[in-house]
Design goal:
alpha/beta; Rossmann fold; two-stranded antiparallel sheet; 12 helices; 23% strand
């Protein structure tokens, strides 16, 4: 698939998920477009212990807890990339308080509608949701104190452009905490070519070192992995894509797929009057 085909496939998959009710999405792999959620639940981390958590906004699509590690302070402006139904935005809003601001950006109009409805129910006036592409984030330069994202950067075809955009919208001295999927080995071709596995951030994963290099090349410093865990794909899901021999080979190289949460900072601007 070329970049436009990838984006359209992602848009369709996540539109289907947005239109499901929360109970269906949480308990069954089969939604409006077939088994469109089976891969996501393998990776999902539990949010219920975090203040600000709202179950209506939790579609179980993440692979980490970036807002838990994001070092958000009262009054911060936080941007959530791939904000979905608003889950990380509402957790971030608890941390930044009424004096701060949270901006959610999502590529899927159905997700934006769902998130806005959730924000209205909660009465949050300092949380807004914008429809946009992470390769061209609809946020001005030097706006965000903190950027978060949960298992979304993998869905962006041009990851170098995406991280350059994160750098652009952060204030000097600002930082991000991003959870995503990376590889420490090679995936079988049939998994790489599966649209379902791509939408689940597995087939689209790149090598861990390449991912970290892209972040550094975008100009970030103090790059650090805050959390890492292996992602184990169950046998019944592997059987949808691989034959028995291929499954045996894949299982002999266990823990190829990892979820990582990464922290990095944009350099401060220094002059004769000091740094900011």
């Amino acid at each position: 698939m070329d970049h436009n085909e990838i984006k359209e496939m992602v848009r369709q998959k996540y539109s289907e998920i947005a239109l499901q009710d929360v109970d269906t999405n949480a308990t069954s792999c089969c939604g409006s477009g077939g088994c469109s959620t089976e891969v996501y639940h393998i990776m999902n981390d539990e949010y219920k212990h975090l203040d600000g958590y709202n179950p209506d906004a939790d579609l179980k699509l993440g692979c980490g807890l970036p807002t838990e590690f994001a070092k958000i302070k009262k009054g911060d402006t936080v941007v959530d990339l791939g904000s979905g139904a608003g889950n990380d935005c509402f957790v971030a809003r608890h941390e930044t308080g009424e004096s701060g601001k949270v901006i959610g950006v999502d590529f899927t109009e159905a997700m934006i509608s769902k998130a806005r409805m959730n924000a209205e129910k909660l009465g949050y006036n300092n949380v807004e949701f914008r429809h946009g592409d992470i390769e061209n984030i609809p946020v001005s330069n030097d706006v965000a104190d903190v950027v978060v994202s949960n298992c979304v950067m993998n869905l962006v075809p041009d990851k170098k452009k995406a991280f350059s955009e994160v750098h652009r919208i952060l204030k000097p001295g600002g930082h991000f905490s991003i959870s995503d999927i990376v590889l420490t080995g090679d995936l079988p071709e049939r998994i790489k070519n599966a649209a379902e596995m791509y939408a689940g951030c597995v087939a689209s994963a790149i090598q861990k070192q390449e991912y970290l290099d892209i972040i550094r090349e975008a100009g970030f410093r103090f790059v650090a992995i805050q959390k890492e865990k292996p992602i184990i794909i169950p046998q019944d899901i592997l059987a949808n894509y691989l034959n028995e021999e291929e499954i045996a080979i894949y299982n002999s190289n266990r823990n190829i797929i990892h979820s990582i949460t990464i922290y990095a900072e944009k350099q401060k601007v220094c002059c004769s009057s000091g740094c900011r």
